[in-house]
Write a structure and sequence with these properties.
It is a single chain. The chain is α/β, with parallel strands linked by helices. It has 3 domains: 94 residues, Rossmann fold, CATH 3.40.50.720; 206 residues, Mur-like, catalytic domain (UDP-N-acetylmuramoyl-L-alanine:D-glutamate ligase), CATH 3.40.1190.10; 138 residues, Protein-Tyrosine Phosphatase, Chain A. 34% of the residues lie in helices and 19% in strands. The strands form 4 sheets. Strands 7-8-6-9-10-11 form a 6-stranded parallel beta sheet, with helices on both faces. Strands 15-16-20-17-18-19 form a 6-stranded mixed beta sheet, sandwiched between helices. Strand 12 and strand 13 form a beta hairpin. It is found in: Cytoplasm. GO terms for molecular function: ligase activity. Pathway: Cell wall biogenesis; peptidoglycan biosynthesis. Keywords: ATP-binding, Cell cycle, Cell division, Cell shape, Cell wall biogenesis/degradation, Cytoplasm, Ligase, Nucleotide-binding, Peptidoglycan synthesis.
């Protein structure tokens, strides 16, 4: 379904955040018979629905808005509205088509799009792909979950999009190159369960992508893709298979120097990549695989690619160091919403005295992987748990002899405790392993509170 297909139809846009506003602005010009906005409950992201927006699409709120949805020909939902929402269940039973702004946009732009998703690593990989493409004279526009809603993107030769599971779920067209970084249980409340989450996430590859670039080191991802035979797969982070195209990977020379390689050909030193952690080596290899999929000769361009990494724009709220006069390094990893992302953050700083602030919205995620990592690596750290899931995380790791656990009533208190417990030269890492919603508007709001607490607790 394309935007033009909404001409003459009764269309309801469900959600009044930035995605909802973008949908209204895009749909109104195509001439729907009726265009309305629906908000079932107040949310932090809701925009004031007055003036031009109210004229384009009158707003219906509360329980009565369900009737508006049920009499619509098409419902365009915002990402936060999940499959388990009782109104979605009613709409499915009634046979009312549900789509999204991302799906409408992708139907017209799939052939010029690289779409990136994954339970972790998708923001970094999207950023890498866009930046490296620009460096080798492949202009592009980056957007989606990482910034500008797709319906607000300007015309471009190529698009590089970060796509959340929410945005993948309603797609009926795959991007030209689908990029998969990882797969781990997340957003189970939205999807309705772990298998459903994987199905919605991997809907990105179900509609004819030309290539699927993926991280072959992720066992769960590899298994899910193997269960979908016939996909045009391009693995990264794996040894090259005889007879197949060589893969990108990072391996060590005999002297211990790590090199980025294409098959057995060295491209450039790992030191060219300024991002910490082995996981970011993997993200780089997946990004290079995506470049190769759109025709970039990464071996011929290796010098320009290496030079471009030095100017890679930093992602806010992803392992962002904040130096402090006390000698403590505070690290903002507010984008961490699952145990696996916190594991990578801890791994990056485990060589220094370490305090980790964990906890956020409790979606029932299994924290055993975090415990197993801390136990196997014998990480020495203090974990400070904040509401709502913090106490549950601490309960999972409390028997580990290398881990000290503390609780805090809020993020401000956690930062204060972190200052008290962490010596100069150490790290206080905010890597919550949980979403921000409930206590904060979003991950950016959580980050602002963290930074303000650092200032407030400084001597």
């Amino acid at each position: 379904m394309q935007l033009a297909d909404l001409h003459g139809r009764r269309v309801a846009v469900w959600g009044t955040g930035r995605e909802g506003v973008a949908a209204i602005d895009a749909i109104a010009p195509v001439g729907p018979a009726e265009l309305v906005a629906v908000m079932d409950r107040e949310t932090y992201a809701a925009k004031p629905w007055t003036g031009r927006l109210a004229e384009l699409a009158p707003l219906h709120t509360g329980p009565a808005a369900l009737d508006v949805l049920l009499r619509s020909d098409v419902v365009v939902r915002s990402p936060v509205i999940g499959e388990t929402h009782p109104w979605v269940v009613r709409l499915r039973e009634r046979g009312v088509p549900i789509t999204s702004g991302t799906a409408l946009w992708m139907a017209e732009h799939a052939a010029s799009t690289i779409g990136v998703t994954g339970s972790k690593g998708k923001s970094t990989t999207t950023n890498l792909i866009s930046h490296l493409l620009t460096a080798v004279d492949h202009p592009n526009v980056m957007g989606g979950n990482i910034g500008v809603p797709v319906l607000d993107l300007p015309p471009a030769q190529r698009y590089v999009l970060e796509l959340s599971m929410y945005q993948c779920a309603d797609l009926t067209d795959s991007p030209d190159v689908a990029v998969l970084t990882s797969l781990a249980p997340e957003h189970l409340d939205w999807a309705g369960g772990e298998p459903e989450y994987y199905r919605h996430k991997l809907n990105l590859v179900e509609h004819g992508p030309r290539w699927v670039a993926y991280n072959a080191q992720d066992d769960r991802l590899s298994a899910e893709l193997a269960a979908r035979p016939g996909l045009p797969l391009l693995p990264a982070n794996t040894a090259s298979v005889p007879g197949a195209e060589p893969a990108f990977q990072v391996t060590a020379d005999p002297d211990g120097t790590r090199q980025v390689r294409l098959g057995d050909q060295p491209l450039f030193s790992r030191t060219a990549l300024p991002l910490l952690g082995r996981h970011n080596e993997g993200n780089l290899c997946v990004a290079l695989t995506a470049l190769r999929a759109v025709g970039v000769d990464c071996f011929a361009e290796r010098d320009r690619l290496a030079a471009a990494l030095a100017t890679l724009p930093a992602l806010e709220h992803r392992l962002t160091p904040i130096e402090d006069p006390s000698g403590i390094t505070f690290v903002d990893d507010s984008l961490s919403t699952i145990p696996q992302s916190a594991i990578h953050a801890i791994e990056a700083y485990a060589g220094r005295p370490l305090t980790v602030i964990v906890g956020g919205e409790d979606r029932g995620v299994d924290y055993a992987p975090l415990r197993n990592f801390l136990a196997e690596q014998e990480v020495v750290a203090t974990l400070i748990g904040i509401p709502d899931s913090g106490p549950r995380i601490l309960d999972v790791v409390k028997d580990l002899h290398t881990i000290t656990t503390l609780t805090a009533d809020d993020l401000h208190e956690a930062v204060r405790l972190g200052r008290e417990r962490t010596p100069a030269g150490g790290v206080v890492l905010l890597s919550p392993a949980a979403p921000s919603y409930g206590r904060f508007d979003n991950y950016a709001h959580r980050s602002r509170v963290f930074r303000q607490a650092i200032q407030d607790t400084a001597e």
